[in-house]
Amino acid sequence: MKLQTIVVPDKQTDARKDAGFSLLELMVVVVILSILALVIVPRVIDRPDQAREARARTDISAISSALGLYRLDNFKYPTTEQGLAALVTKPVTDPVPPNWAENGYIAQLPDDPWGQPYQYLQPGVHGEFDVFSFGADGVQGGSGSDADIGTWQVN
Fold first, then answer.
1. CA distances from 130 to 52, 68, 72, 81, 133 (A)
2. Contact at 8 Å (CB) between 109 and 143?
3. By CB count within 10 A, which of 11, 24, 132, 134 is most buried?
4. Which residues of 2-25 are buried (b: 16+ CB within 10 A; e: fewer)?
């Protein structure tokens, strides 16, 4: 009878060979991720500004609707001096609304997405009234995310 020798592979040697990635493999992955970042990041970074603008437009529409209800009940819009607060609490300055709704016309006035109160003019420059936000910079005029957003663009 002949004895056979069995060769058992050294598990430590095999494990060391497969333990990690080569420098070349890592460099390829880094290059691919860099290319993806260059393509995707500019598109994603612009999204928060678009979301803020969309929210401002929605808020302005809701405030405009509340102003319409105010006018239906009281036959005129609140004055610039009474402001948008007339939608939440009954004005005490002239002209005092004769048929002001008991619960108001809007639960609370939202601030614009940049943390500033919405502006109100009656009569407006662009219509019977203007409700608007000065945008990200909080200053009249501007372009991009600094542009004013108002009822003249929403309605």
1. 19, 12, 17, 13, 10
2. no
3. 132
4. eeeeeeeeeeeeeeeeeeeeeeee
Q: Kindly state the average pLDDT of the residues 112-140.
A: 89
Amino acid at 7: V
Q: What pLDDT, in 10s, does the model give residues 86-100? A: 999 999 999 999 999
The answer to whether the predicted template modeling score (pTM) of the entire model surpasses 0.90 is: no
Q: Among all chains, which residue has been given the structure tokens 């002209």?
A: 95
Q: How confident is the model at residue 44 (pLDDT cuts 50, 70, 90)?
A: low
CA distance linking residue 63 with residue 138, whole number of Å: 19
Backbone angles phi, psi at 150, to 5 degrees: -145, 180
> What's the first-to-final CA gap in the chain, in angstroms?
99
